[in-house]
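Hi R.,

Here's the chain you asked about this morning:
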Amino acid sequence: MKPLNVRWKLTVWYGGVLAAVLALFGGVVYVVMRHQFLERIDQGLEEELSDVLSEVERAKDSAGLTEWLNRRFAHHEGFDFEITDSRGRPFFVNPRMIEHSLSFAGAPAAATPRFASLQAGSPARWRVVAVRAEGPEGPLTIKVGRSLASFDHEMRELLFTFIVTGPITLLIAVSGGYFLACRALRPVSRMTQTAQRISADRLNERVAVDNPHDELGTLAETLNEMIERLEHSFTEMRRFTADAAHELRTPLAVIRSEAEVALRSSRSAEEYARVLENLLEEANRLSSMADRLLFLCRQDAGLQPPGQEVVQIDELLADLVANLQLVAQEKGVDLALDRNEPCQLLGDSRQFRRLLYNLVDNAIKYTAAPGTVSLASRKENGLLAIVVADTGIGISAEHLPRIFDRFYRVDPARSDENGAGLGLAICQSLVRAMGGTIRVESIVGRGTTFTVAFSIPRQADSFPARCRNASTL
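And here is the predicted structure, written out as tokens:
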């Protein structure tokens, strides 16, 4: 059996609940109306019985009582009377009872009034009240009855009304519910049609948002945000592919041209050596670029999770500065470690070293002599902030949002460098993988500052034992 769609599920549930409510409502109304009608009938019977009892109590002899009863109740509208003596012989019966051969013999009698519903001689039912009272010449059984024909007729009409109008009402309500369900889910159909049209070449389309404040509007906005992220990712992927092809084309063109020139005519050993050196240089550049691209791809795919070891950051910074001092001195840049607070972090020491090496090397590369590159680490608000600042050429504001993009290089100031524009992208990828944040501040002509922040564990004892015993470098 084919499963119902959402429209029919909503309609069936709505119809079932409404049917239960209508049945409950009809049953309650029927029972309440029946009870109220019987109460009114019993109240009328009790009033008539009270009139008869008052006359019986005042009567001095049977003849006078009979005369009064004939005059007062013989032709009473709506009520019938039957009074018998202690032997069950009729003392008084109104003519209508005699004509229809009715008898209330089955009605119980006692010193207090008792009510009963009887089938008295015909299909019609009767409501009877009976009581035993003391008459002028002995005990009498007084019974007052009223036909329930009109009552039963009204109850049947009420029941028929519920039986007829209930299904009609349910049918109309279910039809309206299905219409409303279709109307309410119409935006979902439009979302489905739009989603079916969207492909890698049509990511510019968006789902229509009729009402951004309801649930479907929120869903549409969420889908649009997802499509926008996909469009951005596809754009970045296309741009990345184009940039990678462009970066790879240059060294390949150099290698090809060098090889073609070398093969055109015979050359000396020194010339062939120079050509081979150029080819080796371009090959190393290609190899470095391939390694960086492979690293970024593995990071994006989660195939290179960071290690779990205790890293002594202050020792790592001191060792890094010592290793890069010679590089800085060759360029006439002063490299200094201004502040280095002792701190341990849980992570991969090789990735920490690669991150900080890229930032410091980048700062040295773009700082002209006599310039300064400074490192500092400080603890604040449960975070360890590592700051790499330089007095280099700086980055203009329009380039800052994109400096972490792959293959992005600020032109023309940095175009003379041999980098492929992947260093800062690798830094950002490393920081994200280790759960930190990185931000940059720069002023053209005054320098650039990179700040990397990581959460500090509350205490060293929180590190696993296998991590506490690991090497820091």
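One quick note: The radius of gyration is 51 Å.

Cheers,
M.
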